[in-house]
Amino acid sequence: MKYPTFIVAALTGLAAPVFAGPPAALVEDVQGEVSGAELMDYVAPGQVIKLGPDGAVVMSYLKSCRRETVNGTGSVTVGPSESKVEGAALKSDIVNCDASHAQATTRETSEVAATIVRSVGPDSAPIAQAVIYGASPIFEAKGRGTLVVERLDQPGDRQEVELSGRQYKGRFYDFAGTSHPLTPGGTYVASFGPARIVFKVDAQAKAGPGPAVGRLIRLN
């Protein structure tokens, strides 16, 4: 199955119901007849996704970094770290992702990031709070404002993106749709309104689309 960049992907299916508690997984691709989840939805434990004969869904778990592809008629029940599948065919693998980043709150990361940025000097290396495994990150930044991405370990590399609130689902902006990837091995600080986080791009990261859970930076 091909996993297209979600900005240009066709959407199918019905809106997912709201579940209490933190999300367990991120839906990265939806094809054919699928109900209970849409592309780039967070899904929570207990949520059920139903697939028709031509249905397919790909989702990645935030804690376990388990990426599941489910095809064909059946149902998927979301669990804390993996799914229970009935009827449909399941394939899974483990992808590179930063499970610790998924658990942190925006307030926590912003306060720590401010301290890290203040401590950066000519003889000190910034400590990253998160790692991404693609050079084209996906930023979760809800609403309107200026997204600023600045390299800390090499001054002068700074990008500013004006978000109109019309980013995908009003909150996801994908650098894979731009011509400005980040530098593998670089350490950056991203800010959007009061939210801020320091992150590192893995040295082996490639530009362009890839597993969304491995490129995600949450600023909400």
Walk me through what this model shows.
The protein is mostly beta strands. The chain folds into two domains: about 25-95, no CATH class; about 100-220, Immunoglobulin-like (Sandwich), CATH 2.60.40. The protein has helices spanning about 100-105, 105-120, and strands at about 25-30, 35, 40-45, 50, 55-60, 65-70, 75, 85, 90-95, 130, 140, 145-150, 160-165, 170-175, 185-190, 195-200, 215-220. The protein has a five-stranded antiparallel β-sheet with strand order 3-1-5-6-9, with no helix packed on it. Strands 10-16-15-12-13 form a five-stranded mixed β-sheet, covered by helices on one side. Strands 2-4-7-8 form a four-stranded antiparallel β-sheet, with no helix packed on it. Strand 5 and strand 6 form a beta hairpin. The longest helix is centred in the middle third of the chain and has 14 residues, at about 105-120. The relative contact order is 0.17. The model is unreliable at about 1-20 (pLDDT under 50).
